């Protein structure tokens, strides 16, 4: 008995059934985002900073106002997916800012993807590092495994946050802003990155020490 035609027919039927199950779903590339650009040293607003979503090439930049505040419109697109693929999940879009006298700064706009247009869960705080700023001790421990400007920026920010005076925190550093900053650093300086450092243990302990200090200063758990 020749089973090849039968098998071919079954494959064709399965392919047809799968095709019929494909649906269109709105995928969010970036959420509606609002936040603040500040000088990483003085924590003062940086007026005129150009802010944009890193992944949206050609998107218009938002210009930070006199209080350093900005707003970015989100963007989504329709994608054809299987019903069991690409469900609701936590996501983050990278935001970057540039201003004269500073290195490019970065942060993350966290949101829930899969439910249509989204808003960032936390206000996005971008702390800019002045050009020529001294490297923190953590940068030395991770010198052989830092690969991108974004990672180097996160190292500077982690070190700066751990040095904040709990008695003189800026008004913008509330619980939501603190959680957003912590999440961004954890995303960029992920554990797998530290495994590539020659001084893995020292780098890990130093980073965790700085994040622990920041949590205590900002009054957040975790």
UniProtKB/TrEMBL annotation:
It comes from the Bacteria. This is Carboxypeptidase regulatory-like domain-containing protein. It comes from Glycocaulis abyssi.
């Amino acid at each position: 008995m020749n089973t090849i035609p039968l098998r071919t027919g079954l494959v064709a039927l399965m392919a047809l059934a799968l095709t019929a199950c494909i649906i269109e779903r709105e995928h969010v590339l970036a959420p509606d985002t609002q936040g603040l650009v500040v000088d990483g040293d003085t924590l003062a607003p940086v007026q005129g900073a150009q802010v944009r979503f890193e992944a949206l090439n050609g998107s218009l930049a938002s210009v930070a106002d006199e209080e350093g505040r900005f707003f970015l419109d989100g963007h989504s697109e329709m994608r054809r997916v299987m019903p069991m693929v690409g469900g609701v999940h936590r996501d983050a879009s990278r935001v970057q800012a540039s201003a004269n006298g500073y290195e490019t700064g970065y942060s993350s706009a966290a949101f829930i993807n899969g439910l249509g247009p989204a808003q960032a869960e936390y206000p996005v705080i971008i702390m800019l590092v002045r050009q020529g700023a001294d490297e923190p001790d953590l940068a030395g421990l991770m010198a052989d495994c830092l690969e991108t400007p974004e990672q180097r920026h996160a190292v500077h920010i982690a070190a700066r946050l751990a040095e904040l005076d709990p008695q003189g925190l800026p008004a913008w550093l509330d619980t939501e802003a603190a959680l957003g900053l912590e999440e961004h650093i954890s995303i960029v300086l992920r554990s797998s990155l530290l495994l590539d450092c020659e001084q893995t243990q020292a780098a890990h302990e130093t980073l965790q020490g700085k994040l622990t200090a920041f949590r205590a200063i900002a009054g957040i758990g975790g």
